[in-house]
Design goal:
alpha/beta; FAD/NAD(P)-binding domain; 2 domains; five-stranded parallel beta sheet; about 25% helix
């Protein structure tokens, strides 16, 4: 374990943590962010962000992530890549274990966000990346003039189904119950239904993803209680988000029943000096603008905590 003690360690480098880092570094707080995957989090894999303030024509998710990163680094934030295994509270000093290395800090901000939910059916895990996908922006271009299935009925599913019409010749949208997307997105979806580009199947559950010779060919589903076979060249699944909090399983940080981190209005957890913001926080709205605001709030709370 190094004897060097950081002011702030942020776990995750999505919009919330990057925003918090802008504030902490401007106050000359030694700030290090640890990211295990992609800087920008899920925002970086979003094709177009239309509801982030200041961009009247929208902004590509990867562009927004890059700008946030450059801004944080401009003020001195350090971004390191590594997997955080655990955190430990030792009072005034906290210990973060990154790839088996213990690092000391006076405060922690957890902004690990959420991951794509799984539907846990036969064939899903086996064919991941080979016909089963969770990111339309990443993999949609592989399916030019192909037939696709999108599973889900929330905002993400509708947004990505519409995006995939740029490539696919037709999309079957499988919705387990009813569509729960916003009214704005439902109106957009209706346009693509009217044009024959998307067919919506309500009350439809996915039972199995089937492949032949390594290529996904069809799905076994149940529609309104009756078996239905849906032919497709690929499946894009948007089944909600799950909090990235597995590394906290041996900590004393309080989580809600779904595994999200509980905080007060100042973004502090039940442990003084440990904070959480963004999509990993219980009660989060899962919107980039909100995650950014929470990051700013957390930064101010961290500064006050360190001063005290």
């Amino acid at each position: 374990m190094s004897d060097n003690i950081h002011d702030v360690i942020m776990i995750g480098a999505g919009p919330s943590a990057l925003t918090a880092a802008v504030y902490t570094t401007r106050e000359n707080l030694d700030t290090v962010l640890y990211e295990k995957a992609t800087v920008g989090g899920l925002a970086a894999s979003t094709d177009m962000v239309d509801n982030y303030p200041g961009f009247p024509n929208g902004v590509e998710g990867i562009v927004l992530a890059e700008q946030l990163q450059k801004q944080a680094e401009r003020f001195g934030a350090v971004i390191e890549f590594g997997n955080v295994d655990s955190i430990r509270d030792e009072g005034a000093v906290k210990v973060v274990t990154v790839d088996d290395n213990e690092i000391k800090t006076r405060s922690i901000l957890i902004s690990t966000g959420s991951s794509y939910g799984k539907i846990n059916v036969p064939g899903e895990a086996e064919h991941y990346g080979k016909g089963v996908h969770y990111c339309a922006t990443c993999d949609g271009a592989f399916y030019k003039d192909k037939r696709l299935v999108v599973v889900g009925g929330g905002n993400s599913a509708i947004q990505e189904a519409i995006f995939l019409t740029r490539f696919a010749k037709h999309i079957d949208l499988l919705v387990r119950s009813t569509i729960k997307a916003s009214e704005v997105l439902q109106r957009k979806l209706q346009k693509y239904e009217d044009e024959g580009k998307i067919t919506v199947h309500l009350e439809t559950s996915t039972n199995e993803i089937v492949a032949t010779n390594g290529y996904v060919t069809h799905l076994h589903t149940t529609k309104e209680g009756k078996p239905m076979k849906v032919e497709t060249d690929g499946v894009f699944i948007f089944a909600g988000l799950k909090p990235n909090t597995a590394f906290l399983k041996n900590s004393d940080i309080e989580l809600d029943e779904s595994g999200f981190i509980k905080t007060d209005l100042n973004m502090q957890t039940n442990i003084p000096g440990i904070f959480a913001s963004g999509d990993v926080r219980s009660g989060a709205t899962m919107q980039i603008a909100c995650a950014v605001g929470e990051g700013a709030t957390a930064a101010h709370s961290i500064s006050k905590y360190l001063q005290s």
